[in-house]
Amino acid sequence: MASDKKIFIVGFPYVRESYFATFSCYPNGDQLTFLLPNIWKIKKGEVVFHSPKDPRIHTARAFFSHSHYPIIGGLLKGLMPAFPLVLWRVRHRADLIYACSEPNLLTTMYYALWAKMFRKKLVLFSWENIPYEKKFFGLNLLVKRIIIWINLALSDGIICGSTKGRDIFQKLTQNPIAVIPMSGVNTELFQRRGTGKKFNEYDWREKIVFTFAGAIGYRKGIHNIIKAFDYIASELSLVHLVIVGSGEYGREIDTMVRTVRAADKITRIPWLDYSKLPALLEASDVFLYPSISHGGWEEQFGYSMAEASLMELPVVSTRSGSIEDVVVDGKTGILVEPDNVIQLANAMVRLAMDSALRMRLGHEGRKYITRHFSHAVVAQQFFEFFNRVNGIRPH
Q1: Is-contact 103 147, C-beta < 8 A?
Q2: Angle at 297 (CA atoms; ends 190, 347), nearest 5 degrees
Q3: Rounded-to-5 percentages of helix, strand, coil across the chain
Q4: Bridge pairing between strands 198-199 and 177-179
């Protein structure tokens, strides 16, 4: 199905190469134009992303890089004031504007108002998977509701990153809704290449390796991983745990690792280049990601779980947030209740003792993620939804 409708994409998330890569698979990719931050900082400036190099990309300065500012919180996160100037320049290349920022932000309202002033169709994006009334209260909730109402009234459609998000917004708008993650995953980068159980200077042959890789935050449940591993390591001699990543909870995790009985069976890697992640996963046997609800947040997708599945690892995670969109219990992994260390330990023991089960879950995991979340699949879903909002029917 061809379309000559032109799409203008604005927002900070696609400054990440791994997210932007989805649009390399977009049909009629020459019809896309982007406005992205020239630089984007996260983790208090420890990690800096620079805009990808692509002739379709315009860049501008983005302000408010986090959600913890006094009074305004995250209401202006990612704001690029230059948006109307760039939109004027590319107005003939913008039949529809896709603003990939949350509907409860003033940043989104800024883009929405200018989109309507230029008489363009508008699609929004949300990762939200918890009803707003369960997260916000009093005046804060009232302000959020007003902003959401205005943004949804100005929009022509919304993309939700999860099925729970769709359920939330179906009650708030009559506009078209699609369930599409913000980006797909790289099925070519994340595939087994026969590199075995050696990784850098580590040799984990003859070991059953459990691995966590991601942001080191309390909400990721890494403290529960360490507790469960310390429990099973006393019974299973040939197990090893690898924890990779950095974040605000890193110091507490490092202290915990040093003080448990199984400390000599734990490898802590504070930072790993993304390009080396496939090799680490290939040297692993089971991927652990026991995410928990914390501070009004629940897991919104879990790209590291999808990447681990592509590497044919069984995933042990929790029935929390939108994880069940990514991990199918009993088919691609094992889901346990959040904060249940005993269930987590039992799942780890079960997988450590059953190589056939590990192989079956891992094999099904790669098939499931490829079928639902590859760059090509997600790009096609974007294409079809944008056409739907533009009034173009599939042939």
Answers
A1: yes
A2: 55
A3: 40, 20, 40
A4: unpaired
Asked if 317 and 289 touch (Cβ cutoff 8 Å), the reply is yes
* 389 token code pair: 């909002």
Give per-residue burial for 39-56: e unless 16+ CB within 10 Å, then b: ebeeeeeeeebebbeeeb
- Indicate left, alpha or beta for 214 from its phi (over 0: left) and psi (-120 to 50: alpha): left
Q: In whole angstroms, give the CA distance from residue 65 to residue 246.
A: 18
Residue 207 φ/ψ, nearest 5 degrees: -110, 150
What pLDDT was estimated at residue 393?
Answer: 76
Among all chains, which residue has been given the structure tokens 């947030």?
321
Cβ distance 33 to 7 under 8 Å?
Answer: yes
Does the pLDDT at position 395 exceed 70? no
Q: Strand pairing partners for 185?
A: 374
Reported as a single tens digit per residue, the pLDDT across 15-59 is 999 999 999 999 999 999 999 999 999 877 778 999 999 999 999
The domains located in the chain, with CATH, are 7-184+374-389 (3.40.50.2000), 198-372 (3.40.50.2000)
The stretch 143-151 carries a mean pLDDT of 97
CA-to-CA distance for 315 and 9, rounded, in angstroms? 33
Locate 140 and state its tokens: 């804060």
Q: How many CA atoms lie within 13 A of 249 on its CB side?
A: 16
Contact (CB, 8 A) for 6 and 29 = no
H or E element: which one contains 88? helix 83-89
pLDDT at 42: 85
CB count, 10 Å around CB of 305? 28
Tokens of 108: 């989104």
